[in-house]
Amino acid sequence: MGNDNFNKTKYMTTRTGRTEENYFERAGELLRQNFYKEAATNYLNAILISREDAKSYFGLGMCYKNTKNYAKAIKYFDKAVEIDENYFEAYYELGICHLLEGIPCGAIKNFVRAVQVNPENPDAILQLGISHESCEEYDMALMIYQKLIENSPEFIKAYEHKSALLMKMNRYKEASSVLNELVKRNPDDTNAFAGIGVCFDKLGKRIDAQRYYRKFLQHNPLSNQAQFIKSRLEKLKSVSDSKPKKFTLLQN
Fold first, then answer.
1. Angle 125-101-166 (CA atoms, 0-180°, nearest 5)?
2. pTM over 0.70
3. Domain containing 221: what range?
4. What are the tens digits of pLDDT across the range 110-158?
5. Number of domains in the chain
6. Does 207 map to a domain?
7. Rounded distance between C-alpha atoms, residue 203 and residue 60, angstroms
C-alpha cells in the first residue's frame, strides 16, 4: 500500500512547484515514447512559463509533425526560428513539413537557410535538391545532387536521387554512369543493378540489360521488383530468340 501511494505521488502531474525545465524534460521523455498529445501539453506548460524558449516551440512542432498536423507544426517551427535565427533543426523540419504539405517553394526557402546555418549537413543539401525537383527545376536539382556527390562522395542517397532524376528525364546513359559509380562506392547496394538494367533496356542494349537484370535477381530474388525484372528478361529473351540466325558459308 505504501508503495502504491509512493508511485501515485511520483507520477502526479500537478503544476504546483514545477518549473519550465521540469515540463520541458517531461515533454521530451513523452515525445520519445510517442505520447504526442501528452508531450504537447507539457511543452505548452513550459511555454506558458517562458514564452521565449525556442526549444519548447520546436518540441511542440515535432508533436504536431508526428501526428501529421503539418500546418500547426509549421506554425511552431516558425516561432522557434523567430526566437533563434540559427536554429538548424527548426529550419530543416520546416522544410520537411512544407514538402509534406505540398509547398516545395516554401521548403526551398527553409532548406536554403538550414544549409546556410550548417553547410556541412548533407541531408539538408539533399532535401534542397529534392525541393527543387518537386518544383520541376530539374537542372538546379541535378546541380545540387552533383555538388553533393563531389563534396560528400560516400553519401549514397545523392547518387540514388541523381540517377532517378536522370532516368525520369530519359537521360539513361548518364543515369547508368551514376549508378555504376554508386555500386563502386557501395557494392552492397544491389538495387542499383535493376536501375542499370533498365537504362540499358531503354537504350536498346538488350544483352547488357539482361546481364544486369540477372545480377539483380541473383541478389534480390524476393524483391518487390523481382516479378517485373523476370518479365522483362523473358521479353528480351524472346526477342533475341525470334531474330533470324546468321549463317556463314564455309569455304573449301
1. 45
2. yes
3. 159-237
4. 999 999 999 999 999 999 999 999 999 999 999 999 999 999 999 999 9
5. 3
6. yes
7. 51
